[in-house]
Amino acid sequence: MSDILVQVEGISKKFCRGLKRSLWYGVQDISRELCGVDSRQMTQLRRGEFWAIENASFELRRGECLGLIGPNGAGKSTLLKMLNGLIKPDQGRIRMRGRVGALIELGVGFHPLLTGRENIYINAAVLGFTKHEVNRRLEEIIDFAEIDDALDAPVRTYSSGMRVRLGFAVASVLETDVLLIDEVLAVGDIAFRLKCFNRVKELLSKGIACILVSHDVNNLSRVCTRGLTIDGGQVSYDGELAGAIIQYESSLLPTLPRPEPSPACPTAEEVKIQQVRVCNPLDEPCETFVSGDTVVLHVDYESRQAVSDSTIVVRLGSVRTGMLGSFTNQVQGVRVPLHQGTGSFAIRLPKIPFLAGAYFIRLSIYDATQETLYDNLEMACKFDISGPIPDPWQEFFTVRLDHEWPDAKHMAVIDSPSCPLDVQTERMAS
Q: What are phi and psi of 313, to 5 degrees?
């Protein structure tokens, strides 16, 4: 038996933005197929059409979980719908081995007027399971979904979270060979989401394949073994999860909002920031570092007149969590004079504590009193921290906090029933 459960070879899918024109193109395509003409050979876009997915290829083996990453409108949901057979590709070929379970759009596959119990059988039948197979696992599905009180109520009375519980319970308990999960898990409560991710890990150990779409890096890093980045309908990266996430975050940086300076702060034209260059300690241009490295920022400016002292405000941010912090030279009492004409100064960020991801710098230059703004660059520069994406069970958010552990023989842990850690310790003698 082949280990490859999903094989995608050069698939493309085009859509038309106009409803009337889209319907007319659909009639034309159906007519061609009835006449024996393969419409998939049409590679030229017609008026109003665009490629939602273009020439995408990848494989997925047993036990692998692929994290599908990309901005809104990149084509992720379109790709999942083609994998699930809801729509067919215009070009290329998809091979799926085994049963496919999917959670793509909230409520898809459920009849709103039927009860949750009845929808379990309908949903399972769509996945290819017999009534006998469902009866054998019915109690397990009900226990996993945790909606006992509403099981015999119409699905139209369910909340979005309850629908996700029921859909995921059917797809996971019946153990399909391939599991496709879109952002629908984001609507569930945290306790059930963790339960779902633990279930996915269990299924992966049994040899299923899974494709997970999420914008939450923590969710991806819980279960994904690989990452695939889609941008503009094309696969731009296929490899390690960390590389996919970093590329995705880096692509978002130029599109971050650029707020206007506060009107309460008057501006002047004396100083202009030309550019901010990111370098390593050897002053070599560099945009990729690892946690703990030293980053050097070289600020090139042009000043109409000499400024005896200035205030440099540096703000650091992350695509994942937003602004992380800021600092100025005035806090440490450091003077930064600006010479008339062109000049530059350097700012060292020693031992940056950031975890893997994409980061950006916002830089502003004020006068010494910080009452007049000379210039401000909302997206002055960016850099990446490479390395493995942190395990959300061990490290959270963005910063790796420096810390020290005492020797085990000198360590005391409070023996309290409210302590969330399941550890066994010996209390030190006083």
A: -110, 120
Q: Which two tokens stand for residue 415?
A: 């023996």
What phi and psi values does residue 304 have, to the nearest 5 degrees?
A: -75, -25
Degrees to nearest 5, angle at CA 249 with 246 and 250:
80
Alpha-carbon gap, residue 215 to 174, rounded angstroms: 27
The packing angle between helices 160-173 and 131-145, to 10°, is: 130
Q: Which helix (H) or strand (E) holds 386?
A: none
- 94 and 51 fall within a common domain: yes
For residue 163, what pLDDT band results from cuts at 50, 70 and 90?
Answer: confident
Nearest CA among 81, 76, 91 for reference residue 12: 91
CATH number at residue 336: 2.70.50.60
Range with top average pLDDT, 126-140, 251-265, 337-351: 337-351
Polymer length of the chain = 430
Q: Which two tokens stand for residue 393?
A: 């069970």
CA separation for the pair 329, 336 (Å, rounded): 8
Q: Which two tokens stand for residue 363?
A: 């830089």
According to the model, what pLDDT value does residue 315 have?
92
Q: Are residues 121 and 217 in the same domain?
A: yes
Structure token digits, residue 192? 């059930």
424: nearest Cα among 413, 288, 251? 413
pLDDT digits (tens, 9 = 90+) for 300-325: 999 999 999 999 999 998 877 778 88
Q: Are 170 and 152 in contact (CB under 8 A)?
A: no
Output phi, psi for 192, to 5 deg: -70, -35
